[in-house]
Amino acid sequence: MDTPDPLDETLALIASAPESASALTLYALACTLEHQQAGCLFKLTKLFDLPADHRSLAYGLMELLAGGEVGTERWIAAKVRMDDLIRGTPRRAS
C-alpha cells in the first residue's frame, strides 16, 4: 500500500480550492518551511483551524523538512505550482 505523499496531497488540495482557509494555511506553512535560517516561523495555533485530515498534511510537510526534502527540485516544482494556484496567475514557459 502506498502512503500518500504530503507534498502531492497539499498541491491537490490547493488546486481544488485555492481560496479555501485550508489551502491558504498549508501554503503559508510551505512558504515558511523554506526559511530555515529564520527558524521556519509558523504560528502553530493556525493548525487549530484545519480539519484533522488537513492537519495531517501539515505534519507531513513538516516531516519533509525534517527529512531534508525542502528545497529539492521536486519541492521547488510543487511550490512554484502552489504559487501560481494561490495567485491565480499561471506562469508561462519562456
Residue runs with pLDDT of under 50 for 5 or more positions: none
With helices defined by DSSP (H or I, 4 residues minimum), what is the helix count?
4
Helix content: 55-70%
Q: What's the mean pLDDT score?
A: 91
Explain what you see.
By secondary structure, the chain is mainly α. It is 57% helix and 0% strand. It has four helices and no strands. The chain has helices spanning 6-16, 21-33, 52-66, 73-87. Helix 1 (6-16) runs parallel beside helix 4 (73-87), helix 2 (21-33) packs parallel to helix 3 and helix 2 packs antiparallel against helix 4. The longest helix has 15 residues, at 52-66. The chain is globular and about 30 Å long. The termini are far apart.
Quick overview:
This protein is mainly alpha-helical. The chain contains four helices and no strands.
Any descriptors?
globular; mainly alpha; 94 residues; 0% strand
